[in-house]
Design goal:
This protein is mostly helical. 67% of the residues lie in helices and 0% in strands.
Length: 188
């Protein structure tokens, strides 16, 4: 493993273990076995290191979404779509620091629906499941994808922040809302 990869990996471990608030470049350098200024040989700035770590976290989410959805032989399109959406919530629960890191000041590279999403992005995985679920070439695939993304992302964010100690069954409620959303789209 090269030093840049080691820095990203250790940075991610630090964030998972201690949170973003406890992070310093000096601690990271010590853990990797280099001097703090040497980090700038591999990353031009602290922000570049964060961006690389966010990209790795996004890849992890993409892997989780793909694994939970299963292949075409595993259930129908609706179940694959539901499993993909619920995997998003599961990832946020299992990897809260990575989830938080991933969405910190990370604007989309897309500027319109005319541009395709990055094929390796978690959103592209969700969009492909929506396109399996809806009739071929349905013109509103992105609308449904965005609705699902907003629902599960909102639930995940609320669960980690405002509703951290809230006694309601957020995951079950989100699943019921997803069922209702998909049932409505199935008739259009």
């Amino acid at each position: 493993m090269n030093t840049a990869d080691a820095l990203i990996q250790e940075f991610t471990r630090m964030i998972v273990a201690d949170g973003l608030e406890a992070f310093t470049l000096r601690k990271l350098a010590d853990r990797v076995g280099i001097k703090a200024p040497s980090i700038y040989v591999h990353f031009e700035s602290k922000e570049a290191l964060f961006a690389a770590a966010r990209a790795e976290a996004s890849k992890s989410l993409g892997v989780a979404l793909a694994e939970h959805a299963g292949g075409k032989s595993r259930g129908d399109a609706r179940n694959r779509l539901l499993n993909t959406a619920m995997a998003y919530l599961q990832f946020a629960q299992d990897q809260p620091a990575l989830f938080a890191l991933m969405f910190q000041e990370t604007p989309s590279n897309r500027s319109s629906l005319d541009q395709a999403p990055d094929p390796d992005s978690p959103y592209a995985i969700l969009l492909s499941r929506v396109r399996e679920f809806l009739p071929a070439d349905h013109p509103q695939s992105e609308v449904l994808s965005f609705g699902i993304w907003a629902l599960v992302h909102g639930a995940a964010q609320l669960r980690q922040t405002h509703l951290q100690k809230f006694g309601a069954a957020i995951i079950d409620g989100t699943r019921r809302n997803l069922d209702a959303l998909l049932d409505g789209w199935a008739v259009t």
